[in-house]
Amino acid sequence: MIDLVFDARRHNLGNFEVGRVLPFHARRMVGPFTFLDHMGPAAFDPGFAKSADVRPHPHIGLSTLTYLFQGEITHRDSVGSLAVIKPSEVNWMTAGSGITHSERFEGLREHGGRMDGMQAWIALPQEYEEIAPSFTHHEGPTDLPYYEGGGMKARLIAGEAFGAKANVPVFSPLFYVHWELEAGATAALPAEYSERAAYVASGRVEVDHRALNATQMAVFAPGETVVFKALEPSTVMLLGGEPIGPRFIEWNFVSSSKDRIEQAKADWKAGRMKLPDLDHDEFIPLPEGPPPPAPPMS
Length: 298
Known about the structure:
The chain has helices at about 105-110, 140-145, 260-270, and strands spanning about 1-5, 10, 15-20, 35-45, 55-60, 60-70, 75, 80-85, 90-95, 100-105, 115-125, 135-140, 145-150, 150-160, 165, 175-180, 185-190, 195-200, 205, 210-215, 215-220, 225-230, 235-240, 250, 255. By secondary structure, it is mainly beta. It has a single domain (about 1-240), classed as Jelly Rolls (Sandwich). It is globular and about 55 Å long. The chain starts with a strand and ends in a 29-residue tail after the last helix. Residues about 290-298 have low confidence and may be disordered.
């Protein structure tokens, strides 16, 4: 039932840590999910340094999905969007042919508080890779179906699962679910999609007679229902979908074409993707020196 278990790799960004879950060397993608990051948890005092903010940077060929357990983030982008995301809400940004955006902790900087959340990169199917960029914000049970019972609170963040559909404009078959489980609660993930995984954001659960600890991801074999038992109060993120084909990933760019990534890098370096009025700050430059080895296409 369990194909693979691995730990998030922690990266210190100076003011807080991010756990990189996907890609993993033995598993680059799960369905269309190419990146999965756990932001925090971290505590901030009022007035912390602006270096914690994510300055303007570009994307192509993907959608980003931001979802918070705690805290808030201010999003701005080159299609004119301005949105403050708070816990249990979704920011869905489709880069398509190219978008530039920033993410700032303006509310936390003013009041202080905790930050804890997830950000996913979801690769677009090849026929949608060059779609016009867009942004939508989603909140509440009409957009994000919610269920509570049997020691479980569940929210469908994107896609379709458990007989429900989220009002988030996805481009391929996928699911993304947030579970909060009380100690002793059981819950099942049906065999609805060919690629499925679960990330334990906090707590400890048992699957297939194996304990999964906080910051671990389990990838499951297709074709069987997966039963979870919470060994303590736990937050679990379920995700997956149908594979969309191999992808190249370099810096902030995802594409089925290596040449398209090289073009995006050239466009960013030449300033063709930058809007001077997006933020009152510098844009993130391309990394210096030779690029790291490209991950194998999966």
